[in-house]
Design a protein that fits this description.
By secondary structure, the protein is an alpha/beta fold. It is built from 8 helices and 9 strands. Strands 2-1-3-4-8-9 form a 6-stranded parallel beta sheet, with helices on both faces. The model has no long low-confidence stretch (mean pLDDT 96).
């Protein structure tokens, strides 16, 4: 078994966001990898107008999924669920999807279909550059309130400007319709409130709740590890 972690929007270095849970999994012989998402400026090209978007993110994740034949669990965090819906479709090694405070889009849906049409107050959208990002002053209270101070400080250095194109680009497949799925509701999440997560989770095969904020793999890595091992 291996785990592929697909990180959320407006951040970089998925391996860092995932490292606490990854280290615990490795003690049980389970390796993991976190693909780079080009729309977040990972991979050499900056995000923004004319830059990479959802199709490039899908291609990057799909390449990693197709690199190995061993049974794979994909952990899709937040925006990562949009990417995974298309990237994991038809990949025979993918045996389970774990959606963490995330989305299960239908074919043709985009990230913007899960909002109310206006940017969240914790986001900064810059039409001139064609990017959006998390306002630094909202990072801790919205996404990391249950993490220790050192983690909060390190996370601030992992923010990224992302191409705004990804909010409107539709997915071309819905892997969760083909692959068993579990939805992890983060009950103390202030970015995507639990009531919305529970609504999104209705499409998943199984629903689990943890009393955590938006990043349980940082704040409660042992709980996430145990969930993954149970899959």
């Amino acid at each position: 078994m291996r785990v592929v972690f697909v990180h959320g929007a407006c951040v970089r270095d998925g391996a860092w966001w995932w490292h606490r849970t990854a280290e615990l999994l490795l003690e049980h012989g389970v390796p993991s990898v976190a693909p780079l998402l080009p729309s977040c400026g990972e991979g050499g090209r900056p995000g923004g107008a004319g830059g990479p978007g959802l199709p490039e993110d899908v291609a990057a994740v799909r390449q990693v999924l197709q690199d190995g034949e061993e049974p794979t669990v994909v952990v899709a965090h937040s925006y990562g669920g949009i990417v995974t819906a298309e990237a994991a479709a038809g990949v025979s090694s993918v045996r389970h999807l774990l959606l963490v405070s995330s989305y299960l889009p239908e074919v043709g849906q985009s990230l913007s279909d899960f909002g109310d049409g206006t940017p969240a107050p914790f986001l900064d959208v810059d039409p001139d550059s064609g990017t959006f990002g998390v306002r630094p002053e909202f990072l801790v209270e919205t996404f990391l309130q249950d993490c220790d101070p050192d983690t909060q400080a390190q996370a601030a250095d992992k923010l990224a400007r992302q191409s705004v194109h990804v909010t409107a680009q539709p997915v071309g497949a819905a892997a969760w319709q083909q692959v068993p799925s579990t939805y992890l509701v983060c009950a103390q999440d202030k970015g995507t409130p639990a009531r919305l997560q529970r609504d999104f989770a209705r499409k998943a095969g199984t629903v689990v709740e943890l009393d955590t904020g938006h990043h349980p793999f940082l704040s409660q890595p042992a709980a996430v590890q145990n969930l993954l091992l149970s899959l």
